[in-house]
């Protein structure tokens, strides 16, 4: 229990009154008078720093009110007659912030710039995605004139491995007179990040607040009962004291062993013990009534997973329980789009209604107004009517597969209190302003694209941070659903860590490098790159590594003395021992490597029509090869199984070299998309097997699985053994004791050498990557060396300067090699999609035939250029450019030809929201290309025409109010 402060002295009261009077005359005083609430201490301190002309880094929990600092920066800019830019990581957040600021300052004062939307871009206040500001800086845009303040919302996005470098580029390149207000979630190394900002931006104050304005309580829902996670009255602020930084912890590794005083609820621990005993008895128990009861419980448990004495509540039951305990509105995080949609459908099917009749009328009016500009033909394919029905009940999903318009309607209805339960993927946690009274986590693991992994403490904090609406709720609540196998102590440990380190993902890209060279020249460009946060962190780590090296060198000297032998040089004897051990290991590994190499070779040599027997994986059994895969480092030929499923097989699906067992001819008319074609082909395979047709011409088939001669390693092993026996130290009576010290010496020597290599690798690491990028660009002719040895930008290089994206160099090469030359506007849009779209690995299928011969030729050029570029990147030790994806080429082409949305999406796995999102990215690329100085006027005109063709219907409908 805290003590109340004593009464102020007259002198203290006078001083406080004088400070308030002085403050009232400042810009901050005017700003405070425009608010209907008092500023928190961290907000006031941050605003004072901006008013004093300093930059500021504000790190505070979600919902603490960081954006007030950004709004004060805008207020200062308007007061001083300067411009202010407000940057966000995602378009949805930009749209939301634009609406808020336009309502506050008037539409004439506020603009919006995203990749596909431009509204009032010359306004004194402009909201934009961070990439737009980066592009402005490289283009030296006139819009940057009179810029006084830049607010970087969600600046911790700097750690994102795909887009994070953009934040560093902006921070480094902004003019020195611009004040930067960086708003971040609570990070454990805010001081380090602030020190870097101080270095590159000038004086920057770091203001960290660990306090949540609305207390957060942690619970576990066991069945339909909500149980406190902690035994006492323990809130979020109490369980996560300042300085906590173990954020890589997951639900499996986190614990509270070092947290005396914070006990996990004994009821949950008892439940976990009962579940553990049940599973033990289930494995080793015997018959009778007990076994029959266990069998019923086993039937309720997930297949193959642990069982629980608790029957898990259904999604409708969870929402109903929350409603009874007055914990709505709630956001339930489900790490699956399909799961979110299914949750709404399940609640509707269960007859759940969370709204009053009056609320339903308001919802219906808002929904119908939002949909009035969407073509009626598209409403069915968009799932409009089921979406509307869920909203009327107060239920909605929120994920990236939804139409942006639909998502924004959900957001507004939720914030206004009409939607009571939202089922969302984790993307909602990235800055979208949708606070709730309660946040529910269905599971503490998610699929990251490759495997199911536990969420980290940082992710847990980001998700549960939505709970508790400032000014509305007295407290917020985080609820984890009990699953079979839940460990309450691990959940408590996860909930007790709420910060995460901000680590740079910065690396020089082709576009970044050529822009730096054009603006600053090579020496200055290297200096700028060495001022990045990535290099700043690397340099700081080198100090600690050097200290470790010195300590290990001292230990090595002691080990060396302990292994001294009076008969000879034991270091040499030890070297022979290591060489023998390594030779024996290599001999064993060589066999495995040879087997893998043979398997990869056999997969790459399979031809269309070969019939194979796949032993395992996603497509076990007989299959016919539909297309070869010769170019990939890990060949994955496309096959069709006898049950007509289309798959790709890789090395993980086979146990050794895969040879054809027979062969058939695939008709030219075969179309993998037509079920009848697949059935006919499967029938041909069965006939070939019955007739025992030969698999292939002997000249080809005999080569499958044939091993290359392995090096004769046995001879080397025998030689080393002879040398060991002949060495003087071999006869030493203390040989084993010396050998133990020698083993320690070698192990420590390897560790020390590894640390030395780390130091060498971290010294000037960013600049070294830049040098390799410059070398590659020179080899392609984008850079030229003058007679004086200075690098200059070629004509093609100037074009690359205006191409932004992950495939920037491939796009430039495609233009350079004429891929766009013989196309019409619809084909240009389709080809642009090949350079933008990124399919999920499991969605990659056969290469489709393109809509036209000219487009097929264009795609061939792109694929050839990518393959050549990948080889050069690999040789240069640079990150590889992503493979061109053809999965969007047909849908974009159909859309550009004016087809209806249902026809466009038919036969694809694309959700309507995904399609709209990708079309907008295609529009962004086409807009970039159209504006490239010196581009062939015909191609520039076609890019403009292509934009008009695809910016229609649901794509053209602007969801920005």
Number of helices: 36
The chain-level structural class is: alpha/beta
Helix content: 40-55%
Spatial sequence of strands, sheet with the most strands: 4-3-5-2-6-7-1-8
Question: Kindly state the mean pLDDT as a whole number?
Answer: 81
Global shape: globular
What integer value in Å does the Rg equal? Answer: 32 Å
Number of extended strands: 24
Question: What low-confidence regions span 5 or more consecutive residues with pLDDT below 50?
Answer: 1-5, 241-261, 283-289, 291-304, 698-710
Largest sheet: 8 strands, mixed
Walk me through what this model shows:
It contains 36 helices and 24 strands. The chain has 961 residues and is α/β, with parallel strands linked by helices. An eight-stranded mixed sheet has the order 4-3-5-2-6-7-1-8, with helices on both faces. Strands 10-9-17-14-11-13-12 form a seven-stranded mixed sheet, sandwiched between helices. The chain has a five-stranded antiparallel sheet with strand order 21-20-19-18-22, with helices on one face. Helix 7 (165-173) links the parallel strand 6 and strand 7 (179-184). Helix 14 (357-371) runs antiparallel to helix 17 (404-415) and helix 20 (510-530) runs antiparallel to helix 27. The longest helix has 35 residues, at 570-604. The chain is globular, with a radius of gyration of 32 Å. It starts with 9 loop residues before the first helix and ends in a 5-residue tail after the last helix.
